[in-house]
Design a protein that fits this description.
The protein has 330 residues and is mainly α. It has two domains: 2-91, Hypothetical protein rpa1041 (Alpha-Beta Plaits); 115-326, Rhomboid-like fold (Up-down Bundle). Helix content is 55%, strand content 5%. The protein is built from twelve helices and three strands. The chain has a three-stranded antiparallel beta sheet, covered by helices on one side.
Length: 330
């Protein structure tokens, strides 16, 4: 996806984007700060045609061809959607089962371009293998825990062998530790569940917003959710071993939740079932540590980094909602 250009007037930006869609050039307009509104084109091969259209539009914004652009784009999209529904009745695309599903589920549609998400999944699995005795293969019932590996200690926010407090290693300049706990997973179920959530939510965002945006979003969610969990541990004066991608996953969920409900131009999808399950798990994990529910849930749910979940969810939702507050009125 590439930025075509900036148009200062929101109405004109939406009209040009609609006209491009009607010409079979997938495009959309979004706010670009004080500069105005950016026009984005998904297929880079169509950029020359789109640039020519932009130049003509800037020179002739009142050209009659643009006056009914929104109506033409809506009609074009309606016909394309009807074609997709007809095709889905007759064809089952096995190649996209991993990235497909029910429309609106958060995993629907054609295969997505999500190199950042796939890289994060690969790194999580690879680091899980390298730290197998510390994480995926660790037996909680064992009478004696083996010495932690150097890789595992290097990914923790606080190295248990060198840190006097949870903030010691960061204070020494080891800032990577604010991110690396997202690659630590305690057991295969923990890893698999988080990777499914990461792909379900993250691939949709990366496919529509681009890899650079996705990478920045993940970094922000990782740092804030990890620091939020560390702050809770420091307040409770407990150990600093925690990890998992779930803080990031809840941040991505929060981003999609807000976008699908308050920004009808975003093009994101999130089914009610997915939302219900994510919120239910969030509540159950908190209830697990709160009497009298803890007596019922502690044997069924392992210890959870609830502050990472909460901070990730809040930050992701805030990042999605902030542009809507700042958006200029039409």
């Amino acid at each position: 996806m590439r930025q075509l250009g900036i148009i200062t007037d929101e109405r004109e930006a939406e009209r040009l984007a609609a006209w491009l869609v009607a010409q079979r050039i997938e495009a959309h307009a979004e706010e670009a700060g004080e500069a105005g509104f950016a026009i984005w084109v998904r297929d880079e091969d169509q950029l020359p045609q789109a640039r020519a259209a932009l130049e003509h539009f800037r020179a002739n914004p009142q050209d009659p061809r643009y006056q009914n652009a929104e109506r033409d784009a809506a009609e074009f999209q309606r016909k394309e959607e009807a074609k997709r529904r007809d095709a889905q009745k007759n064809v089952v695309q096995m190649r996209s089962r991993w990235g497909s599903g029910l429309p609106g589920s958060g995993m629907g549609g054609p295969p997505r371009r999500a190199p950042c998400v796939l890289t994060l999944i690969g790194l999580s699995v690879l680091l899980g293998i390298f730290t197998y005795s510390d994480t995926l293969g660790f037996d909680e019932g064992a009478t004696e825990r083996p010495p932690p590996s150097g890789i595992y200690r290097g990914m923790l926010l606080a190295d248990p062998e060198t840190a006097q407090s949870i903030w010691d290693n960061i204070a020494r300049g080891q800032v990577w530790r604010t991110i690396t706990p997202i690659f630590i997973h305690f057991g295969w179920p923990h890893l698999v569940f988080n990777m499914i959530c990461l792909y379900s939510f993250g691939s949709q965002i990366e496919d529509r917003r681009g890899t650079r945006f996705m990478l920045l979003l993940v970094l922000v969610l990782a740092v804030t959710s990890n620091l939020g969990q560390a702050a809770e541990y420091a307040w409770r004066q407990v150990g600093g071993e925690f990890g998992g991608m779930s803080g990031v996953a809840y941040g991505l969920f929060g981003y999609l939740f807000v976008k699908t409900r308050y920004d009808n131009r975003s093009g994101f999808h999130l089914s009610p079932v997915t939302s219900f399950m994510a919120i239910l798990w969030f509540v159950l994990c908190i209830a697990r540590d709160v009497p009298p529910f803890s007596a019922l849930l502690q044997n069924a749910i392992p210890a959870i980094a609830n502050s990472a979940h909460a901070v990730g969810l809040i930050v992701g939702a805030a990042l999605a909602y902030a542009p809507l507050v700042l958006r200029k009125p039409a």
